[in-house]
Amino acid sequence: MNDGFLPFAKPFIEDEEINEVVDSLRSGWVTMGPKTVKLEESLAQYTGAKNIVAVNSCTAALHLSLLALKIGKGDEVITTPYTFAATVNSIIHVGAKPVFVDVERETANIDAGKIEEAITERTKAIIPVHYAGQPCDMKEINDIAKRSNLKVIEDAAHAIGAEYGGKPIGHSDNTVCFSFYATKNITTGEGGAIATNDDGAAKMAKIMRLHGMSADAWKRYTNKNSWYYEIEECGWKYNMTDPQAALGLVQMKRLNELRDIRIKYAKMYTNAFKELEGLITPVEKPDRLHAFHLYPLLLKNYDRSEFIQEMSKRGIGCSVHFIPVHLHPYYRRTMGTKEGLFQNAEWFYNREVSLPLYPKMSEADVQKVVEAVKSILGA
Length: 379
Ligand SMILES: *Cc1c(COP(=O)(O)O)cnc(C)c1O
Known about the structure:
Number of helices: 11
Bound molecules: pyridoxal-5'-phosphate
Shape: globular
Largest sheet: 7 strands, mixed
Number of strands: 13
Distance between the termini: 32 Å
Strand order of the largest sheet: 1-9-8-5-4-2-3
Structural class: alpha/beta
Helix content: 25-40%
């Protein structure tokens, strides 16, 4: 198992997580049930959001958020090309049109100063993506949304545990979508959640996550005589399961601790790299806490593929976040996007390499990465 290779990512799963999952299996509740409700309560308490809807992925959370906010055919939704395909696909799935706005070079987050020129009378929502775990310029974005009467759905797949203006991400009047995918800051294997203060949207998302059945229809299993349900909408099958929620419940207890290890390791990287000629370390903007889901390092003039190969030779896995959405064949083919359209996204992508950053790493592992980077750059 331990061949000395440091993988790019690894979940933090200990006996406590395993025991809680086993407890769920022994209880017989293997689909959505009491542990899912407990996880929703835990997330509500942490974020301060009025409602949490747990689902089976952040992709489902984004899709249901758009549906619950009645965004669909003929509508436009603004987001950035510097994200995972899921953000954009969810917009396409409801029949709306994604409209890309370029990112800033400092953070790879949406450039709030460029949003207004992309708004048309069809625009219904903005989906900012908190890239790498650093919150976007939410004050500016919320002001624009208010002026133009737009909804804001935050893609917070990287940002559980991050803070903006002293408040946890999820504590806002926006709809906020989290991911608990295997590599994210906390995991349920696969999973996600919607945070919203809008009771109507939460109710609709709950109906739509389970076939369109009247809210909390799963409760009928707890009551022997309750066989009756009604389908109110044409919904989806997006519910979380209790074994997933069991994992998430223990991860929630560790959330701040795990985040703080990420922040500590990110600082170690930045201290080691900030004086090196050929590198640009992550910029942290004021008034927010970066949750450091990723450590995106920018190479000024070293070939990125060669760098990743050299890291691999030294026993270290790296990755790249993201291949800009507008460069993938599907979007080129269907939306006519092409190279050159979003120059900051492409600038960031051409230089970016994500270093391993997770709490299962030891400080010695961090040091190993630092030494490898230095030796490759000849520093
Ligand atoms: C991981 C990710 C998603 C999708 O999350 P899933 O839980 O895997 O569906 C969405 N947006 C971004 C930015 C992501 O990194």
